Amino acid sequence: MSAGTDNLPPRAAVSQMATGYWVSQAVRAMAVLSLADHLASGPRTAADLAEATGAHAPSLARLLRALVALGLCGREATERFRLTPLGGALRSDVPDSARSFVLFFTAPWFERGWEELPHAVRTGEPTFPRVHGAGFWDYLGAHPEDGALFDAAMSEGASARAEALRAVRDLSSIGTVVDVGGGQGRLLAGLLEATPGLSGVLLDRPEVVAGAEAVLRAAGVADRCAVVGGDFFASVPPGGDAYVLAQIVHDWPDAEALAILSACHRAMAPGARLWVIEQVLPPEDDPDPSERAGLTLMDLNMLVLFGGGQQRTGEEYRQLLGAAGFDEVAVVPAEGTPWSVVEAVRR
Ligand SMILES: C[S@@+](CC[C@H](N)C(=O)[O-])C[C@H]1O[C@@H](n2cnc3c(N)ncnc32)[C@H](O)[C@@H]1O
Hints:
Elements: H1 10-18, H2 20-32, H3 35-39, E1 44-45, H4 46-53, H5 57-69, E2 73-75, E3 80-83, H6 85-88, H7 99-105, H8 108-115, H9 117-123, H10 128-132, H11 136-142, H12 144-168, E4 176-180, H13 186-194, E5 199-204, H14 206-209, H15 212-218, E6 225-229, E7 242-246, H16 254-267, E8 273-278, H17 293-306, H18 314-323, E9 327-333, E10 340-345
Parallel strand pairs: 4-5, 4-7, 5-6, 7-8
Antiparallel strand pairs: 1-3, 2-3, 8-10, 9-10
Helix pairs in contact: 2-7, 4-5, 7-12, 11-12, 12-13
């Protein structure tokens, strides 16, 4: 990720960084108004789109002009606006949609934690609970609409995580895979769809797995998948040949991360494999720090939400898994993706 400021003088570059949220809010407006869905069947004028979305036509024309400048829409000679491939990612009906992800990360209730980032840096405390009076998972449980949006945002990226795992590991010899904190089952569905004969067990919070049946049924794998509503600190289903923890460990400080890994270790039989799927931080002596920009910002996101939840280096994952009793830990990057699989075997 680059901030896109390389050729600007310092004042202009810093100003552009500081107004980066203008871009995210313009993208949000496009998603909230469902402009990509309205443009999916072909180019339309601003007036036509205003009528379809109930928007103020001159202001919508100004938004569209900005979206053209950002490359999300194009403008035809006929004054009609069309969707570009970039803007197409905001359609709600495409398999690689980013619409829920955009709506979640730009939601005012979510951004309020980020507004308090200086406090998090001063104290090390997560700011999401400070502004909402509840930890992130409890907040989602108490606000079902926001919880559903988070689950949908996670599901949008889950197929890519399944692909990354399949790119580096052959699942054909695995009988049962247990996805611990597997959301609504999109990642597991990706593994089961691609691997006939594989069975799955999905564990997540009860209010999350309530939506899993529909996901698994739509993928045609519901008959090969058991769904468990529970708490991964209390217990993890036994009997799997492989256990997946995708984007779980980074949500937690070391003590809780260790407790989750230890719960998996207790549930696993000797010979079972653990696959931790995460975006692994490169070491500090990496030659190009700008390559780390996206990950270091994700790390701040973890600070805001969870305090000690954090992105970790391969070495830090090795130490955590070792402390939980795993050995032969290998960090395997899935080339061409942001994901790595940290693999360990239960002895
Ligand atoms: C960042 S999401 C990752 C979801 C999924 N693994 C993926 O890769 O898309 C973290 C998941 O952990 C689940 N979770 C949080 N606390 C949990 C708990 N105590 N027991 C079970 N699941 C929990 C959340 O509900 C959420 O689905």
